Amino acid sequence: MNERVVTLNLNGRRARVRVEARTLLSDALRHELDCKGVHVGCEQGACGACTVIWDGQAVRSCLALCPQAEGATIETIESIATAGGNLHPVQRAMREHHGLQCGFCTPGIVMSLVAAYRSGATADQAKHDVLGGHLCRCTGYANIRSAIDAAWTERDHG
Amino acid sequence: MKPPPFAYEDPDALEGALTILAEHGDDTVVIAGGQSLVPLLNLRLARPERVLDPRRIESLHDWHLDSNGLRVGAMVRAAALEASPRVASEMPGLHRALVQIGHPQIRARTTIGGSLCHADPAAELPAVLLALDGRVTLASVAGIREVAARDFFTGAFTTARRSDELLISAMFPTFPGRVTTVEVCRRSGDFAMAGAVVALQQSQAARIALFGVADRPERVADAESALVAGASAADVAAIVRGAVSPRSDVHGSATYRRHLAGVVVARALAELGA
Asked: Smallest Cβ distance to B109: which of A22, A59, A130?
């Protein structure tokens, strides 16, 4: 019972992976499924770098065992820009407003913001509740908040 | 770090889960949302032989709200209740507690049953259950029993659930008055240094349950009766400060936590218009 075959709908494709049951979703995505944009920071749910979208909701992939995700629809940062390279409005705003420095925390933050952007959350909710679930040690929060304002203005008045 | 090796079982029927717990309960941990357990596994503070994942048991995902209260299956996510306008309007004290659990990214996975069974002394939901005189339903191969909140939380991270039992649902009764939940933490999303669930039906009934200031959520009966008798918020807060004996830790000293216990109760009473 220690090994499992887990099937995901990953970034729009069916993915099957054989893992030890103890494998974290973050590690299965990085090491078995080549989603290196899933960054692993603290592995205790504090930093948010490993955030992915699971059935439409932003979650920390280091706080799930891969077998718990059987049958789930998982989106990682690799799927957020279109195949042609068109950035999502959140990504565009992060770039235009210099919402990152070293970039380690950025994929997780973008995934949380994309989920919030789609869900109809307000810019205030995104800036406080959603961004509150992420640590950025370059202290780039001011610019990330500017990026949220810009992306949300485009969403609501675009 | 990574979790230690374990056997993993995810039966699709309650009977299967209860059989596993009957045979291996002492060496098994139940994973619900995993938002507390997986960090413990990653840090290897928990090294179970077996992990039981009940997510495929459909009945554990049901919830029902009526005039008696909220009957909620163990695997219902905090985010699901948080998103319900009916929960917000009919169970406002519970809703206020839900939105203060961790971050949205945590609440998307947090389950009601997991939080109650983990029984973190600083967690919101155990205190809400205690304030509302709620109860949990525990199932084993021997049958089903209900345990009142006041008997369920027996210490830090410790409950009356036997190792052969699975918490299948909880009942959060309605209260014929107003209820709110107030907490103070250093950063948004942190566990509370002190928190209070306060329920008030003017001059008829009052409940005050504190969290984060003892090894388990606790009611303050003297403060409740003073409140019913018409004591001022300041006097009620003073009674609360006198009734608690919190411990010092890295998050705050005992003196500061005692002070905060009064603060959160006073703030809650102000919110309730008392």
From this structure: A59
